[in-house]
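Help needed: design a sequence for this.
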């Protein structure tokens, strides 16, 4: 555990940031940048009309009291800043002249990061207060949550804010990398909808030429990917994602006989058929009730099958996994006393960063000194029309979701991502449309790393790369003769990011893990299910969050290289670290901290004023914690002096969604429609904000998938495309000056 006296070091030393943040996501972005060594000046009073929120977001920051009237009022701060971070709604940003066009004359080379909660345009971008329940309704998250009845479900944690915060911080640092290389300032938008696109990248899909398989909202979707109850009444999750993994699980359980039942007929892929999956799941549930949970977990772990017990947050926080990954840190807060909170969830070997204290002091409201110039001279002609990571070569030796999400986010900022696959392809290609969505801007090279000639090709590729991302088990690279040390020796400037499940050390380091494993271990599934069975959300917050945090660490390491010491370094992230960070508020402990929300099956929200309600033609979201406003709305709808807010649900059933929203607005109750899953990719509001686009799949035709995870004011990312394994092998080998061998296909 670190103490307040530890020196705060990091790759962003000397970087000055002005933070005008009202929402948890933007405050998190500023916090992460401060953890990485930046000097963050928070404008105090900007959020005085909003709830205080988690005070831990202010760690490592200084404060300045400046009325945020317009750009002129902040000109002294902005003139000496490297990054300006604001999350004002579009109308408010324009009224206060805080948009990029207004700020640019004051600070020509500044990175302008805008993080609006709902998007940049459309009816809801200006009319709603920041609220995770409303964003989940508008964006499709609520409609995709598992449910028994076909209804929207509220999450017990804010699933979007941690991911938007990490994506925003990544964009800010990517902008610094671009400026260090060509001297140009840039502007980026990372909205709440961008974060939703990242979270829902494998869920929000639609086939135009043929139907796309969708797991739907089932709480137990397939027998290989669901919660089971053991004989001691304790719950655990089986996470055998692929058919091959499920066969391995059945073998370890001594139940290969299930492959021979008529519904499966020897084809393990048929468990995806709902009727067949239901039969197998029922048989397995009966089987698991014959022994206690520990018995089954031991068998599955011996078979190297991802699985996890459903635990509580207290068990997670006090366990060896968190201790081994440095998951929590304590700092003294001047008002709240000792505060324990999630640590910086990404580690850099050369410039590690650290959580700062709450004694940052008060910054001056004027020019706070001259920003030091970037240490390295610009290598390129200034080119603001290019994305900031243009020309950065990233080698992607990862599979499934967390690692590929990392490189997808880097590609969004202009990086040239080369995905290295075995000749048979990434195992995640089993889910070919989901694979397309997360790998659409990458080139593919097929290499069999068991062959020395292909290992030599990989060494040549890594020797000319800026970044390597891999999620291999500890020791796997060494067994292939591709140790991190040998790669660093051949290319000292290489930034090497290792993405793991449980971290690189400790007893669990070699265990596999998927997102639901960490939902269970970290207490999220228990909290979402409440007194009922634990519930795993369909939103892959740990995979996506790990990808975003990995991209942040990589961008920070690149900035340190280009602006300072010129060397690469190791970046370590894990789903285990992200599991604590994803529930940042819930794992922040201090005297008097607020109680945490607990859910239930088909959880609609915590109380009638903050809930998803059924109307005559759809669902509406209400988000009001002020009881008197809800009471007034009930009285108006009932045309009486009715004083019970619980009656609002029955009253809304007689109204259309639009009528319900109009009534709510008249009484000061924030409200919006809940997006239906049917035709969601063509929703008017999402389309206005550029949420999705159409990509032609090489086998299945046109597919509507999410467009991206950030928008730059100039420059566009590589064209999206679907690939077969090795489509670009010859092209990439030619760039390396090598010929293609027979084993490369």
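Sure. Designed sequence:
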């Amino acid at each position: 555990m670190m103490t307040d006296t530890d020196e705060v070091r990091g790759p962003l030393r000397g970087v000055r940031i002005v933070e005008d943040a009202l929402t948890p996501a933007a405050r998190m972005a500023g916090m992460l940048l401060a953890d990485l060594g930046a000097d963050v000046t928070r404008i105090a009073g900007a959020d005085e009309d909003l709830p205080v929120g988690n005070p831990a977001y202010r760690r490592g920051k200084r404060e300045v009291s400046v009325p945020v009237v317009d750009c002129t009022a902040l000109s002294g701060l902005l003139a000496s800043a490297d990054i300006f971070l604001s999350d004002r709604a579009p109308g408010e940003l324009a009224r206060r002249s805080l948009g990029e066009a207004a700020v640019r004359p004051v600070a020509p080379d500044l990175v302008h990061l805008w993080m609006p909660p709902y998007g940049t345009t459309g009816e809801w971008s200006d009319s709603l207060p920041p609220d995770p329940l409303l964003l989940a309704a508008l964006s499709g998250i609520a409609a995709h949550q598992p449910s028994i009845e076909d209804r929207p479900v509220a999450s017990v944690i804010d699933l979007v804010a941690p991911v938007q915060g990490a994506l925003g911080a990544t964009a800010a640092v990517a902008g610094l990398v671009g400026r260090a290389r060509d001297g140009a300032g840039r502007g980026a938008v990372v909205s709440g909808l961008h974060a939703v696109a990242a979270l829902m990248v494998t869920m929000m899909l639609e086939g135009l030429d043929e139907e796309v398989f969708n797991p739907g909202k089932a709480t137990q979707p397939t027998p290989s990917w669901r919660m089971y109850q053991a004989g001691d009444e304790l719950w655990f999750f089986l996470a055998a994602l692929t058919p091959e993994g499920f066969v391995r699980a059945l073998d370890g359980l001594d139940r290969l006989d299930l492959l021979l039942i008529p519904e499966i007929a020897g084809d393990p892929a048929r468990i995806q058929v709902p009727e067949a999956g239901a039969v197998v799941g029922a048989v397995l549930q009966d089987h698991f009730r014959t022994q206690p949970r520990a018995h089954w977990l031991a068998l599955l772990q011996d078979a190297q099958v991802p699985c996890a017990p459903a635990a509580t947050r207290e068990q997670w926080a006090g366990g060896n996994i968190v201790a081994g990954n440095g998951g929590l840190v304590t700092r003294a807060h001047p008002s709240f006393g000792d505060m324990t909170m999630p640590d910086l969830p990404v580690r850099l070997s050369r410039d590690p960063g650290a959580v700062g204290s709450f004694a940052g002091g008060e910054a001056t409201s004027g020019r706070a000194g001259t920003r030091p110039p970037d240490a390295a001279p610009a290598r390129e002609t200034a080119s603001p029309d290019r994305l900031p990571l243009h020309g950065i070569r990233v080698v992607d030796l990862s599979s499934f979701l967390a690692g590929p999400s990392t490189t997808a986010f880097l590609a969004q900022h202009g990086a040239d991502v080369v995905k290295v696959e075995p000749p048979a392809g990434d195992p995640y290609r089993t889910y070919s449309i989901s694979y397309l969505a997360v790998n659409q801007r990458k080139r593919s090279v097929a290499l069999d790393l068991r062959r020395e000639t292909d290992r030599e090709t990989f060494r040549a590729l890594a020797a000319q790369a800026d970044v390597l991302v891999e999620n291999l088990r500890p020791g796997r690279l060494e067994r292939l003769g591709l140790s991190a040390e040998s790669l660093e020796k051949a290319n000292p400037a290489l930034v090497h990011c290792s993405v793991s499940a449980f971290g690189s050390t400790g007893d669990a380091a070699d265990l596999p893990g998927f997102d639901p494993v960490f939902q269970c271990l970290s207490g999220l599934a228990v909290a979402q299910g409440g007194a009922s069975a634990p519930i795993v959300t369909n939103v892959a917050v740990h995979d996506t969050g790990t990808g975003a945090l990995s991209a942040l660490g990589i961008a920070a390491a690149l900035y340190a290289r280009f602006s300072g010491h010129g060397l690469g370094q190791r970046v370590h992230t894990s789903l285990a670290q992200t599991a604590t960070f994803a529930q940042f508020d819930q794992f922040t402990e201090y005297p008097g901290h607020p109680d945490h929300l607990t859910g239930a099956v088909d959880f609609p929200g915590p109380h009638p004023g903050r809930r998803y309600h059924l109307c005559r033609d759809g669902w509406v979201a209400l988000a009001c914690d002020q009881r008197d406003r809800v009471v007034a709305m009930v009285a108006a709808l009932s045309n009486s002096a009715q004083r019970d807010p619980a009656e609002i649900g029955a009253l809304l059933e007689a109204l259309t969604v639009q009528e319900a929203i109009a009534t709510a607005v008249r009484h000061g109750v924030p409200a919006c429609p809940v997006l239906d899953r049917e035709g969601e990719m063509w929703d008017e509001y999402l389309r206005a904000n550029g949420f999705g686009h159409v990509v032609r799949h090489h086998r299945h035709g046109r597919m509507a998938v999410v467009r991206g995870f950030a928008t730059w004011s100039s420059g566009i990312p590589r064209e999206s495309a679907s690939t077969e394994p090795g489509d670009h092998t010859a092209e990439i080998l030619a760039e390396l000056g090598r010929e293609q061998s027979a084993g490369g296909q």
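The chain has 28 helices and 25 strands.
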